[in-house]
Input
Amino acid sequence: MESQALRSSDWTLKRKRLPGMASLARGLRILVDPRFRSEWLLARRRPDNLFQPSGHTWGDRYEVFFSFVRDQMIGVTTPRLLSFGCSTGDEVFNLRRLFPQADIAGIDINPRSIAVARKRLRKTGDPAITFELSNSAQSLPEAHFDAIFCMAVFRHGDLEASRPDSCADKIDFADFERTVTGMCRCLRPGGYLVLRHSHFRFEDTQAFAAFKPVYRHRNRRGAVLLYGADNRRVEGALEQDVVFRKRAGCSGRCAGGERQCVKTQ
Ligand SMILES: C[S@@+](CC[C@H](N)C(=O)[O-])C[C@H]1O[C@@H](n2cnc3c(N)ncnc32)[C@H](O)[C@@H]1O
Output
């Protein structure tokens, strides 16, 4: 797992040493590798609300978090799950193994990733999984999902490489806050929000007031790269809250000014 995650930093080191060769290799890869091409195009075009353009994913990546949420939801007979930023579907198929009775929706901003995920889905014939092209939770129903997983989306690979003081050229806290607030709206009271590998902290948003952290994770590879509400780099933390539970009394409308939700539980 760690070695896959390190690949991009190895690549960055080589690129610094041999810039000409690296550009050539990248050009060739754009020509021959459809996945790489689609991500390169996404990064160049920067569609509205794009966060991480890379669709790098693999199965069984988040077993520990997924199992935790499953164990919390033992009494829920048909859980409704959302994988936000599902890439080519590995995360969704992994969730299916852990939640055999669930209805699972996967959404992603990359049209090629959704096409690949749907092709994979056709082979399984699973009627309780859907994949949709989307850049937000805006069109999804209110208070609908029992759990929303948003893994490795609110970040950007280029930031890891250069660790700039501001992330604003690549990703913006205001977009993060709006997007995560939209997800909160779709989560039922008592539901779970899982945020992993994010350069922003849910705790810095207004929507957080309607949630309670229920799972804290210690990062084995040191402090994570973090940016605050002003998009400035802040000191990274070794431990991070990853799973949040929506307070039972929350109306489901987690727009700004929801702090009163805390009182209603
Ligand atoms: C690194 S992949 C993560 C895939 C999977 N969640 C995982 O962790 O294995 C990041 C994904 O986020 C998607 N993405 C970025 N911004 C998005 C947005 N606004 N809405 C939906 N998907 C987005 C990208 O297209 C990409 O597939």
